[in-house]
């Protein structure tokens, strides 16, 4: 399977000047369990270093096992569907979400949009959840449908994998 990684994209139908394209030389997984949606994180080694700047930046990581309290305001992003049976958008979507703890598991950060049917959806998987400038989650799954108002959205809790991420980065550096 040939996959192209594109950094710096905003509009999927436009070849923007800030875009950088890469191939993947290695994939690192950490005991992913698809039946339970556990450890739903992976790291990709690109074929060359990215050029950092206004369009492409490195996300700050939390501390290992850092917690995130209920009510924390975060930003979720992605190009996923605009609803369970809706089309995918042309431009990157951003959504202000609130951390919740009900129905959540220790391996996840869960969010809702209060009093509004909005949230992550199919196609957003792998997208970031940024809270206070720190990457706290990686979009993982929804229950039943998108923006149900009954169930939170589930993100893999990045703080559980910080030590693993650093160990992979140490081994992957040229």
From TrEMBL:
Q: Which SMART domains match?
A: Tryp_SPc
Q: Report which superkingdom the organism of origin falls in.
A: Eukaryota
- InterPro entries documented for this protein: Peptidase_S1_Elastase_sf, Peptidase_S1_PA, Peptidase_S1_PA_chymotrypsin, Peptidase_S1A, Trypsin_dom, TRYPSIN_SER
Identify the keywords attached in UniProt to this record, alphabetized: Disulfide bond, Hydrolase, Protease, Serine protease
Q: Which Pfam families match?
A: Trypsin
Residues forming the Peptidase S1 domain are: 1-170
CDD domains recorded: Tryp_SPc
Q: Please report the name of this protein according to its UniProt entry.
A: Myeloblastin
